[in-house]
Amino acid sequence: MAFKGDKFADRAAAAAAAKRALVDSFKAKPAPDDPAVLARQAERKAIADARELRAIERKKQKEIDDLRRQAEDVAKIEAERLRAEEEATRVTEAAASDEAIKAQRKAERDAKYAARKARR
Known about the structure:
The protein is mostly helical. The protein has one domain (33-119). It is 88% helix and 0% strand.
């Protein structure tokens, strides 16, 4: 009993047919009104809309954070200005107090000196 195999032409034709079937399956494109295509389009649109919405929310949150940071900076600057004003007022009052004390001491010294002169 001899081996009964396919002839080369038969094998080549089968390979060509398989290749053609594979190419045809890749070329097969569903119609634009196919429910699967429409579902994929709707899903992609929903994903794109959600992505855009998240981007808008991030942008709004960034603007809110920037405004909050600016408000904090303004509050810090205002607090620093008030602290500087209070320090300046305190220094001025201390200097005025020192001047008043010096003037009072000088008046007391002069009065002592005048009293000593008057006794002589």
